[in-house]
Structure formats: structure tokens, C-alpha cells
Amino acid sequence: MNACIRAVVRTGIFRGASVVGINHGYQGMMEGSFRDMDSRSVSNIIQLGGTILKTARCKEFQTKEGRKFAFGQLVKEGIEGLVAIGGDGTFRGAEEFSREFDIPVVCIPGTIDNDLYGSDFTLGYDTATNTVIEAIDKIRDTAASHDRLFFIEVMGRDSGCIALNVGISGGAEAILLPEKETSIEDLCKLLERGEKGKKSSTIVIVAEGNSHGSAYIVAEKVWQQLPKYDTKVTILGHLQRGGSPSSFDRVLATRLGYAACNALLNGENRQVVGLRANQIKLTSLEDALDNNNSFRLSDDMLEISKVMSI
Ligand code: F6P
């Protein structure tokens, strides 16, 4: 997000606009927590994880009165357009806000979950998957040396993108996804098949939002049926959301921030900027939100993950 904030600020200034940062997202908008941004205010942040502007969930902004109050704060500050970076909640807030009040908004998809329509990749996804793969590689050393069965839980409350991606890149034997039900029986069959195929260690990637619950629960259920396995669980948790962004994410953030700022200054409204087939594209906020729940895991990736696990 910092690389993206930097790009928005510098593009705006390059175009002759004044750029104001809003601290803590919609919460800060309600509180009138603004800060003037110049080129130097975003120096040396491209390599930093997190966001210098900070973020917050804001219940009041979910009400019409709250949004009205927030709009008043923007008017007082002389703010004439918004670039919002975030996930589904940010997009929903932006959609309602720009429909109700006279303020143009352009959104940038920022979430490690990679579950937003309109962009092949969301900000943070590449960095998060690289962090996860580093962890899996390290865990594999123990799994292989001690002939163990590891269950590794990765983030993704509603999205299996991280799980499927790292399952393939980390050579997992099985992947549990929120979007596709895998029964414990089927999982056990996969593990048994691996053993028959002379696999001595196994890694199962468990997406946080899978239907069985946490990796501990999955491991316990499997262990009840297959007690012979030496079973271990690792939950990677929030370390997946931090850290210095990958080069890919920094470039993506810069391209999307540049495009969003230019779109806003060129008069666009209620749009999402995204990268599709390596081209910057605009998608209407309505389309982005309407298609948000469509299944995004490609069939070939699912098939590849199965073929590679034999
Ligand atoms: O929405 C992105 C996400 O990373 C999910 O995958 C995860 O479930 C959630 O955020 C965790 O959010 P929080 O830090 O608020 O618990």
C-alpha cells in the first residue's frame, strides 16, 4: 500500500493537484484526520509493508448519517475526489459514498486474498505468497527429515487463491479450499495414495476458510482415521500480511496508483483500476462488486495441483 500511496501522491503533484492523505481510512475521514502530502512525505516508503496512512474498520461509515458526516468533512477540507485502496469493504463503502454524494471515487484493489474482480492481481498477494512459500520450504525440511505429515494453515477467509498458489509452488500433496469441499475421507485417501507411492513426508495446505475449520481441527480429524502418521500443524497467521513488498507488488502498486490518480484527474468516477493481461484497465465499481463472489480459481490450476501431487 505504501508503494501505491507514493504513486498516487507523486502522480497527483506531477499533474498539478494538491494531495491530501486520510489517516485510518473511512474512520479518519469521519474524524477529519487529514494530512497534506508532498513528494518528500512519501520518500523511502516504497520498501515498507503496511501503510503509513494506517487503516481501520469503521462502523459509522456503514450508515447513511455517518457517510453524510464524512462528506461534510471532505467539503470542509476542500477535497474534490478520492482514491481508495483496499478490499471488498473499501469498495462497498466507496460505491455507496459516491452514489449518495457528489464526490468522484477511483478504487485500487489492495488485499492479499486476490479476490477482487477487475484485476488479475491485487496488491500484496504476490508478497504474501512469497512469504508463505519461504515458510513452506523451511517446514518441508522437517517434514522430509522426520517423515512427518504437516498441515499448514494459510490466510483466505473466503478465498483459496493463496492456498492454491502456494500449494502448487510448495509442492503440497493436498489443498483444502473455501470454494471446493474436500471431505476428510477423500483427504485420507489422498494421503494413503501418497504413502503407497512411497512418499515419506506430506504437506497439506489448509486455507483458513475451508469447511472443516482450523488446521488443528483438520489434523485431529485426519489423525483419528490415520493415527500412524506423525502429524504437525503450523498456522502462519498475520506474518503473511506484513513485510517488505516484492518487486512485482511494488511495480503493480506504482502502476495502479499512477493509473488511479490519472483516471480521477481525467474525470473518471466510480471505477476500479486493475491489471488484466498486463494492461491497466478500468472496471466500473458496480461490475467489480457484482462479480466479486464469482469463483476465481481457474480449473487448470486446480487440475495441475492434483496431477502434481501424485
Ligand atoms: O481480508 C484479508 C484477510 O487477510 C483474510 O484472508 C483474513 O481472514 C483476514 O484478512 C484477517 O483479518 P484480521 O486481521 O482483521 O483478522
Question: How would you describe the overall organization of this protein?
Answer:
- The chain is of the alpha/beta class.
- The protein has eleven helices and ten strands.
- The chain has helices at 2-14, 25-31, 64-77, 88-100, 125-146, 161-169, 184-196, 215-225, 247-265, 285-290, 299-308; strands at residues 19-22, 34-37, 82-86, 105-109, 149-154, 174-176, 202-207, 231-235, 271-276, 279-284.
- The strands form three sheets. Strands 3-4-9-10 form a four-stranded mixed beta sheet, sandwiched between helices. A four-stranded parallel beta sheet has the order 6-7-5-8, with helices on both faces. Strands 1-2 form a two-stranded antiparallel sheet.
- The mean pLDDT is 96.
- Helix 5 packs across helix 6 (161-169), helix 6 (161-169) runs parallel beside helix 11 (299-308) and helix 7 (184-196) packs across helix 8.
- It binds 6-O-phosphono-beta-D-fructofuranose.
- The site of 6-O-phosphono-beta-D-fructofuranose has 9 residues, from loops.
Show the helix and strand layout.
Blueprint (H helix, E strand, L loop, with lengths): L1 H13 L4 E4 L2 H7 L2 E4 L26 H14 L4 E5 L1 H13 L4 E5 L15 H22 L2 E6 L6 H9 L4 E3 L7 H13 L5 E6 L7 H11 L5 E5 L11 H19 L5 E6 L2 E6 H6 L8 H10 L2
Parallel strand pairs: 3-4, 4-9, 5-7, 5-8, 6-7
Antiparallel strand pairs: 1-2, 9-10
Bound molecules: 6-O-phosphono-beta-D-fructofuranose.
The site of 6-O-phosphono-beta-D-fructofuranose (F6P) has 9 residues, from loops.
